[in-house]
Design goal:
The chain is an alpha/beta fold. Helices cover 45% and strands 13% of the residues.
Length: 308
C-alpha cells in the first residue's frame, strides 16, 4: 500500500511550522486526512499538536546539558545522541507510527531549521531513503523547501538561499517544490513585476544589483583608496564578493533546477495552490479510490474526530 508525504524544510525563520499549520487547516477544511510529524527537537508552540513528536524519543535539552552545547550545536553535532542522528538509530519510532496509515493520509514531516542536516550532513538523506526505498513504508515523498521572501531585498542573500535549495534537491533526490514564504511581508514594498523575476532566478538580477549598490550605499575606503577590511558593509560590496555571488548565480543558472512558488499562509487559495503542486509531485490523486458523497460523510465523520 502506497503512502504519501511532504518533507517541509528550509532555513530557520522561513515559516516551516506556520506552513504546516496552514496546510493542516486547509486539509481539514477539504475533508482530507493528515498525520503531522514534528522532527524539530527545539519546536515548542504548535497550533495543531503533532501526532508524532521527536521530543517523545529524545530531549534536546538533555543533549545540550550533557555536551555543553547550544540548540544549533545540539541539533547538528556528530554525537550519536544528537536528536536527528538518534532518530536514525531508532527508525522503528517512525515506522511503527506511519505503518498503519492508509493512502488517504498526507504525512507532513516538519524538519529543523539547521540546513546542514540536508545539505552537508547525510542525516536527512538517510531518513529519506528509509521512508522511500530501503524501509517498509514506501512513502511517495515530496520536499517543500521554504525560503523567506524578504531575501529578495538582499539579492546576494537570495542567491545563497537558492543555492541551499539546489543543494538539498541534489542531496535528497526526490521531487521538490521550492517556495517563497511570507509573501505578505513584501507586498507593497516590491513591485509585482520585479517579484516575478525571482521565481526563476538568473544572473541578470545580480548585474542590476551592482548598479544599485554603487548609487545608494557609501563605501568606506582606507589608505590608498582600498576597501577598508574592518568595515563589513564595504567588504560585502567589494569586487571579490560580487564575483563570488555571480559565480553562485551562474552555477544555479547552469543547473536550471530551482524555481519558486509564492506562499501567503493567510490566503487559503495560496495554500491550496502550493498543495496542488505537492499532490502532483507525489501523484496523490491518482492513487485515491473514487468516493460517493455519502461514503465521504461516513468515512470522515465530524471534524473533531480527524487526525491532525
Amino acid at each position: 500500500m502506497s503512502k504519501f508525504g511532504a518533507l517541509v524544510m528550509g532555513p530557520a525563520g522561513a515559516g516551516k511550522t506556520t506552513f504546516c499549520n496552514a496546510l493542516i487547516q486547509h486539509l481539514r477544511l477539504n475533508k482530507r486526512s493528515c498525520f503531522y510529524v514534528n522532527l524539530d527537537p527545539a519546536a515548542e508552540d504548535f497550533s495543531y499538536e503533532p501526532d508524532l513528536d521527536i521530543k517523545d524519543l529524545i530531549s534536546l535539552e538533555d543533549v545540550m546539558e550533557e555536551m555543553g552545547l547550544g540548540p544549533n550545536g545540539g541539533t547538528i553535532s556528530t554525537d550519536p545522541h544528537q536528536p536527528p542522528r538518534f532518530l536514525l538509530q531508532n527508525l522503528d519510532f517512525l515506522t511503527n507510527a506511519l505503518e498503519p496509515l492508509s493512502e488517504e493520509y498526507l504525512i507532513i514531516l516538519d524538519l529543523p531549521g539547521q540546513i546542514e542536516l540536508y545539505t552537508h550532513i547525510p542525516v536527512v538523506p538517510t531518513l529519506v531513503k528509509h521512508l522511500t526505498r530501503f524501509g517498509s513504508l514506501n512513502v511517495s515523498l515530496c520536499a517543500a523547501y521554504l525560503l523567506e521572501s524578504t531575501f529578495v531585498i538582499d539579492r546576494a542573500k537570495f542567491f545563497a538561499g537558492t543555492l541551499s535549495a539546489m543543494s538539498a534537491m541534489i542531496m535528497l533526490e526526490i521531487p521538490h517544490v521550492n517556495i517563497l514564504s511570507k509573501m505578505d511581508l513584501v507586498k507593497g514594498s516590491v513591485p509585482k513585476r520585479q517579484l516575478k523575476r525571482f521565481l526563476d532566478p538568473d544572473t541578470s538580477l545580480l548585474e542590476e544589483d551592482d548598479g544599485d549598490h554603487s548609487i545608494m550605499d557609501p563605501v568606506v575606503r582606507g589608505a590608498g583608496g582600498a576597501l577598508d577590511p574592518a568595515d563589513k558593509d564595504s567588504v560585502m560590496r567589494g569586487a571579490s564578493f560580487n564575483r563570488l555571488n555571480k559565480a553562485v548565480a551562474r552555477l544555479i543558472d547552469d543547473f536550471s533546477m530551482v524555481s519558486f512558488l509564492q506562499l501567503d499562509v493567510q490566503d487559503e487559495d495560496s495554500v491550496g495552490g502550493v498543495l496542488s503542486y505537492i499532490d502532483d509531485a507525489i501523484q496523490y490523486h491518482e492513487a485515491q479510490e473514487p468516493r460517493e458523497p455519502n461514503d465521504e460523510i461516513a468515512h470522515y465523520g465530524d471534524d473533531d474526530d480527524m487526525i491532525g
